[in-house]
Each structure stands twice: as structure tokens, then as C-alpha cells.
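Propose amino acids for all 245 sites.
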């Protein structure tokens, strides 16, 4: 067991599962899928493929490079560094015990970028546990399991996020719920099923159109993301009666 930071790609999927509102509450999900994202739909899970008690909360949604950078301007640099093309996300809920599941399928130019993205620790705080699973149960060519707590008081959640790489895909399956109610065993079957689909139908080599997506993030989007972060972190709304006192 080692200590590390939370990679940004992992946290995007976790937040999506926690809030069950598309790829991430801070990121607008593309309602229409690009050609690149449509090619990832064959790896998505159906409700019948989920463990008993889990239900999908909506159709697969895309998180483009522009949407990711708009949510976090630091992400623009990671798009170029790891040659990210696009992401397909799914969310599911569990009633008893209460919990939520997030699934992220991210396409890169190559395997080096896919694995590097999963391990990138440049944007998140410390004190997250990372564990390498035994090779007889781990999905993908390489994998890492992240375990951490998120939120406070009654909103505190325990999270397991299993990230793995196969070919030029980086994949994450996460589960979140009240502390003591979740485990990696609850999401391993989902990870294995997705990995089997990728193994049977690996993505084709990158196209010219896919490569063009890597450079789509614009300065305007980055500035908009920075402004959103400033407003979220440093601006406190005041009530009218407070202003008048």
C-alpha cells in the first residue's frame, strides 16, 4: 500500500457517480455524441449487465476536451500531455445499501497516454490510498485501486475507484456510499465485463479526425473555467438583508 494523490481522470468519474448528473456535475455533458464517442458506446454496460440492485441513471454521455477544460483549466495541459481524445461516462445508483456508481471510458492517442493519465497526480490533494490488485483478479493490462473519503458529516462518502488501462483506453469504475457500505468486490464484475468487451473489440488506430480533437481546447474555454473556479472558491453570496445592515 502506498500513498498518492487523486488523478484528475479518476476524480471526474467519482464525482459523476456521486452526483448522478452526467459525466461530472461541474462539467456539462454533451447530449449528442461525437463520432469518436459513438465508437466507445460498444464498451458501455447495459442495465442487465450490472450487479443485482444497481440501475443506470441515464444514457451514456460524452465529456469532450473543451468541457473538461471548462470545468478545470488545469486539465487543458493534461489533454495535450497525454493526448486525450474524448470520454464516455455512465452513472448508476444502488438502493440497498444506498450508493452510486460511476463509469468512465476515456480514449487516448496511445497506451502511454492512457496509463499516464490514470496515474497523473498534479491537481488533487494528498491522503488517498492506492493499491495494486493481485494479477489474478485485476482487469486490463495494468490497474490501480484508489480508496478515499469524500465530503463531511452526513454527506461523507467512502469511495473505491478501480482504474485500468487496455490499449489506448483508460477506464475507471467507482462506487461511493456511506462509510463501511462499499467495497471493490462490488464493482469488480463491472470492470471485468467492460474489459472483456475492450479485449474482444479493441479500438482502431487513431484517425485524423480524432487527432484533431486533442487540440480543440481554446483559450476562451480555459479562461471561463478559471473564472468559474474563482467564483466557486473565493466568492461568498450575501443575502440582501446582510448588505443593508
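Proposal:
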Amino acid at each position: 500500500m502506498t500513498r498518492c494523490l487523486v488523478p484528475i481522470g479518476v476524480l471526474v468519474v467519482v464525482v459523476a457517480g456521486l452526483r448522478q448528473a452526467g459525466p461530472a456535475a461541474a462539467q456539462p455533458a454533451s447530449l449528442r455524441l461525437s463520432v469518436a464517442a459513438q465508437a466507445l458506446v460498444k464498451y458501455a454496460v447495459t442495465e442487465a449487465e450490472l450487479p443485482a440492485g444497481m440501475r443506470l441513471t441515464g444514457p451514456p454521455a460524452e465529456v469532450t476536451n473543451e468541457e473538461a477544460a471548462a470545468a478545470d483549466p488545469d486539465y487543458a495541459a493534461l489533454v495535450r500531455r497525454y493526448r486525450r481524445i474524448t470520454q464516455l461516462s455512465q452513472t448508476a445508483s444502488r438502493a440497498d445499501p444506498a450508493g452510486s456508481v460511476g463509469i468512465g471510458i476515456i480514449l487516448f492517442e496511445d497506451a502511454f497516454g492512457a496509463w499516464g493519465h490514470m496515474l497523473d497526480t498534479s491537481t488533487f490533494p494528498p491522503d488517498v490510498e492506492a493499491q495494486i490488485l493481485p494479477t489474478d483478479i485485476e482487469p486490463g493490462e495494468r490497474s490501480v485501486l484508489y480508496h478515499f473519503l469524500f465530503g463531511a458529516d452526513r454527506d461523507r462518502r467512502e469511495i473505491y475507484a478501480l482504474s485500468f488501462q487496455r490499449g489506448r483506453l483508460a477506464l475507471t469504475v467507482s462506487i461511493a456510499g456511506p462509510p463501511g457500505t462499499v467495497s471493490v468486490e462490488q464493482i469488480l464484475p463491472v470492470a471485468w465485463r467492460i474489459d472483456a468487451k475492450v479485449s474482444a473489440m479493441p479500438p482502431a488506430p487513431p484517425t485524423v479526425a480524432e487527432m484533431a480533437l486533442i487540440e480543440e481546447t481554446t483559450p476562451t474555454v480555459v479562461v471561463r473555467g478559471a473564472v468559474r473556479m474563482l467564483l466557486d472558491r473565493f466568492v461568498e453570496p450575501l443575502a440582501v438583508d446582510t448588505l443593508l445592515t
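The chain is about 30% helix and 25% strand. Residues 87 and 155 are 28 Å apart (CA to CA).
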